[in-house]
């Protein structure tokens, strides 16, 4: 290298280091700026976590949770909600019902049942609880639950506690920052109101986020025990989680990572083996690398790229569609992008159903008819009437909501 080139190389290296350092600083600043803005908007006086429980309005809580699920931690929160549902299968009184109905235990029904559950949850999370869409989704859930009187009230409450807590539990374990007291209060507030609208007595719902965490752990200590029905349902559900993993050799490896995510109590109850040593060692490395990359190199999402999994308006036929799906393409329209985009091509290569395939609800869904085929036309008017009552419950400002119509 010529002597004159040495200073140029050094200057270029220094400039690259400055640019890289500035970009990293910008990423971190913008990522934490949203958290600071959220606190400034919804907790301007920095009140304590205890005070937040009584002062936070439902509309504020929904806005905070929406940002958590769709902007801040979309992958983690979505995965946590999946695992929250999965975790309930380690309770024998729940897995017995699921095995008896067969909705999650056969290839013919499992994908549809999972998609229906995701659709109804997405509908009441994407819109205010007193909106028509959210109210219809909650009323439909209630109708389907009432069709199975063997569902225990205590199991319904436990399921609610998992959905309320697991997203933030996963955030604390796997994300680039931990959850704030404001975010905990928001999750408690929103899901408590969801519980009331599902007919769960308000006095049985824990009075704070911390109490919710303590309550679900106490429940698991007593009722999360090994059972063949747990293993039967869980094994088939794992196959749904591994839908996109190609070939049995790769699936065997992926199952080890699923076992590594599960804690010891959950594995024992589901009769799962302990994960292979390589999986137990690899998982924290992968998640740690992801955490570091997000904190230092990834700019935060904006409103323009929110992760909304259902369509924000109906199609020409008056039905709604799924925009993002996890396994079988239920309720996904047959657009060119869906059929020939990345996941359409992956589906073709793997021999999986393509979006818009006949028989997968390609014409969309009506909220009040979502559910097993046997219930498709059942209870529609009942659902609509109950939804009208739910819409009257309000919940925009602090203290609103919580008036049980059941």
Low-confidence stretches: 396-406
How much helix, percentage-wise, in residues?
Answer: 55-70%
Our measurement of the CA-to-CA distance between the termini, rounded to an integer number of angstroms, reads 82 Å
The Rg value, from CA coordinates, equals 23 Å
What spatial form do the alpha-carbon principal axes imply?
A: globular
Q: Please state the oligomeric state of the protein chains shown.
A: single chain
The secondary-structure class comes to mainly alpha
**Tally of DSSP helical segments:** 17
Mean pLDDT equals 88
Note the beta-strand portion: under 5%
Number of strands: 0
* Helix and strand sequence: HHHHHHHHHHHHHHHHH
The largest pleated sheet is described as: none
Task: Summarize it.
It is built from 17 helices and no strands. It is mostly helical and 406 residues long. The longest helix is centred in the first third of the chain and has 38 residues, at 5-42.
Task: Lay out the secondary structure.
Elements: H1 5-42, H2 49-55, H3 58-72, H4 74-88, H5 92-101, H6 107-126, H7 132-146, H8 153-174, H9 181-197, H10 209-223, H11 228-241, H12 248-261, H13 264-269, H14 277-297, H15 336-340, H16 342-350, H17 380-391
Helix pairs in contact: 1-14, 3-4, 3-9, 4-8, 5-11, 6-7, 7-17, 8-9, 8-10, 12-14
């Amino acid at each position: 290298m010529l002597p004159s080139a040495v200073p140029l190389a050094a200057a270029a290296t220094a400039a690259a280091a400055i640019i890289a350092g500035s970009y990293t600083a910008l990423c971190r600043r913008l990522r934490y700026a949203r958290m600071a803005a959220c606190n400034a908007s919804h907790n301007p006086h920095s009140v304590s976590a205890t005070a937040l429980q009584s002062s936070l309005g439902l509309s504020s809580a929904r806005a905070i949770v929406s940002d958590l699920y769709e902007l801040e931690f979309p992958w983690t929160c979505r995965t946590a909600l999946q695992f929250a549902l999965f975790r309930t299968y380690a309770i024998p009184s729940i897995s017995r019902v699921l095995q008896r109905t067969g909705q999650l235990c056969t290839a013919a029904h499992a994908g549809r049942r999972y998609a229906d559950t995701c659709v109804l949850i997405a509908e009441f999370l994407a819109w205010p609880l007193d909106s028509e869409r959210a109210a219809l989704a909650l009323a439909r859930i209630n109708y389907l639950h009432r069709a199975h009187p063997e569902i225990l009230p205590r199991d319904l409450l436990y399921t609610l506690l998992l959905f309320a807590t697991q997203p933030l539990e996963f955030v604390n374990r796997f994300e680039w920052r931990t959850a704030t007291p404001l975010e905990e209060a928001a999750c408690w507030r929103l899901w408590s109101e969801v519980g009331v609208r599902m007919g769960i007595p308000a006095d049985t719902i824990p009075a704070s986020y911390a109490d919710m965490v303590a309550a679900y752990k106490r429940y698991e200590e007593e009722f999360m025990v090994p059972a063949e029905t747990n293993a039967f349902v869980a094994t088939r559900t794992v196959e749904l989680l591994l839908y996109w993993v190609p070939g049995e050799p790769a699936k065997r490896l992926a199952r080890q990572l699923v076992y590594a995510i599960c804690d010891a109590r959950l594995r024992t109850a589901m009769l799962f083996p302990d994960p292979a040593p390589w999986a137990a060692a690899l998982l924290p490395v992968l998640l740690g690398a992801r955490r570091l990359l997000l904190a230092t190199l990834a700019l935060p999402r904006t409103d323009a790229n929110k992760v909304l999994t259902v369509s924000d308006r109906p199609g020409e036929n008056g039905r709604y569609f799924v925009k993002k799906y996890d396994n079988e393409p239920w309720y996904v329209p047959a657009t060119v992008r869906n059929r020939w985009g990345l996941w359409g091509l992956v589906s073709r290569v793997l021999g999986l159903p393509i979006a818009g395939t006949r028989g997968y609800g390609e014409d969309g869904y009506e909220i009040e008819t979502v559910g097993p085929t046997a219930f498709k036309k059942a209870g529609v008017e009942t659902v609509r009437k109950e939804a009208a009552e739910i819409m009257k419950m309000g919940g925009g400002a602090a203290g609103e909501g919580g008036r049980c119509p059941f």
